[in-house]
Amino acid sequence: MLSKLVPASLALLAHGTAAPYNTNSSLRMNQIQVIGTHNSYHREISLAEREIFEKYVPSPESYYYSHSSLPNQLTHQAIRSLELDLHSDEKGGLYYPPLIWTLSNLTNATTPFDGSVLLKPGIKVFHVTDFDPNAVCHTFVDCLTQLKEWSDHNTKHVPIIIDLELKTEAPACDAGGVCPGEATNWTLPRLLNVDAEIMSVLPRKQLIVPDDIRVGNLSLEESVLQHGWPFLDDVRGRFMFFFDNDPSSDPNSPAKLYTADGHESLQNRTVFTNGKSPRYNVNLCFPPNERRTIFISL
Ligand SMILES: *[C@@H]1O[C@H](CO)[C@@H](O)[C@H](O)[C@H]1NC(C)=O
Ligand SMILES: *[C@@H]1O[C@H](CO)[C@@H](O)[C@H](O)[C@H]1NC(C)=O
Ligand SMILES: *[C@@H]1O[C@H](CO)[C@@H](O)[C@H](O)[C@H]1NC(C)=O
Ligand SMILES: *[C@@H]1O[C@H](CO)[C@@H](O)[C@H](O)[C@H]1NC(C)=O
Ligand SMILES: *[C@@H]1O[C@H](CO)[C@@H](O)[C@H](O)[C@H]1NC(C)=O
Ligand SMILES: *[C@@H]1O[C@H](CO)[C@@H](O)[C@H](O)[C@H]1NC(C)=O
User: Fold this and answer.
1) Whose CA is nearest to atom 5 of ligand 2?
2) Which ranges of 180-243 would DSSP assign to H, the alpha helix?
3) Which residue's alpha carbon is nearest to atom 2 within ligand 6?
4) What are the tens digits of pLDDT across the range 16-44?
5) What's the 3-state SS for 23-74?
6) CA 88 to mean position of chain CA atoms
7) CB 26 within 8 A of CB 48
8) DSSP 8-state assignment for residue 1
9) Confidence band of 45 (pLDDT split at 50, 70, 90)
10) How far is the C-alpha of 190 from the C-alpha of 149, rounded, in Å?
11) Is residue 108 within 8 Å of residue 39, measured between CB atoms?
């Protein structure tokens, strides 16, 4: 049986007639399940930093895990959703050197990565300011560039949904680290830097943005409720971003600033936010039978 089927399917492939993706074309993008990672960029600190880390951070062992590079997660681990922690750094250098490097007496020869990347202006990607700075990509633009390159070589991938958490902590101020200020305050211009950095790397056709979802003069929520999310096959090869911070529980949620003054339905914005309606809230409230993402929390 097998010996008959194998040559038949090879013949189909040889003639280019086999459908490469066996999905129902009426399937919508929210009707699939994918596997995602949490803190997708995270690399654990080096052994030389553990003494200081364990002095300052409660439950330190829960931070001792490392993810593969983003392209390796996509290629070898079938990951299709990611979570990135963003830290504003307009001038560059705000998070350099991480206090843990200084307290651990690291030199340029012994830091786990070349810190000069932290001196460049632009949004940084890492877990905890001053204490947990290691990552597979250190700037948002570098992470996005790696994702774009992967997507350019895998153009039919299902949309990759990226959860962006805007970080606002400054836990080491008293010990000589970063203090509250830019590190804890996502003003509107800083939020718009997130949009600008995404658009500096990903062309419009590789994105799903709110303007793609809104229909006529309907609000974003009404559009989703009345017309649904796009068909899966229409949004292959694209990325969609949303802000993790929940406006109902997180005082640092960007939702108010980001949706004010004519942007109530995220007009001309790049990132989705949490919403009230279960079907509009891309983060938490997909109906259970349409659940989009299983986050692996390490
Ligand atoms: C595709 O999905 C639609 C809607 O769920 C369903 O009515 C249809 O029968 C499906 N077609 C196939 C070929 O599975
Ligand atoms: C770093 O160096 C100082 C000064 O030599 C020393 O007192 C301290 O114990 C060292 N810290 C670590 C974590 O090795
Ligand atoms: C260590 O690296 C940083 C970042 O590249 C650089 O600014 C600094 O001059 C270097 N320090 C030494 C002593 O080489
Ligand atoms: C954030 O910065 C803005 C603009 O500088 C300022 O008006 C606001 O008070 C700051 N908010 C906090 C919580 O520091
Ligand atoms: C929205 O558009 C529809 C049809 O284009 C129109 O009939 C309706 O009056 C508009 N509603 C508002 C509030 O502008
Ligand atoms: C849309 O956003 C871009 C980038 O932030 C900005 O340059 C442009 O002026 C905005 N357009 C409108 C109509 O708001």
Assistant:
1) 105
2) 188-201, 210-213, 220-227
3) 268
4) 344 455 567 888 888 888 888 899 999 99
5) CCCCCEHHHCCEEEECCCCECCCCHHHHHHHHHHCCCHHHHCCCCCCHHHHH
6) 15
7) no
8) -
9) very high
10) 26
11) no
Burial label, 28 (beta-carbon count in 10 A; 0-12, 13-18, 19+):
middle
CB 145 within 8 A of CB 88: no
* Residue 53: φ, ψ to 5°: -55, -45
Alpha carbon of 100 to ligand 1 centroid (Å) = 55
Q: What does the pLDDT look like over 142-186, one tens digit per residue?
A: 999 999 999 999 999 999 999 999 999 999 999 999 999 999 999
User: Going by DSSP bridges, is the β-strand pair 79-87/34-37 parallel, antiparallel, or unpaired?
Assistant: parallel
* 235's tokens: 């949004």
CA nearest 36: which of 139, 208, 162, 206?
162
Note the pLDDT tens digit of each residue in 232-265: 999 999 999 999 887 777 777 888 899 899 998 9
| Amino acid (one-letter) located at 168 | T
Q: Report the alpha-carbon distance of residue 298 to residue 295 in Å, rounded.
A: 9
Distance 226 CA to ligand 6 centre (A): 27
116 lines ligand 3 (CB under 6 A): yes
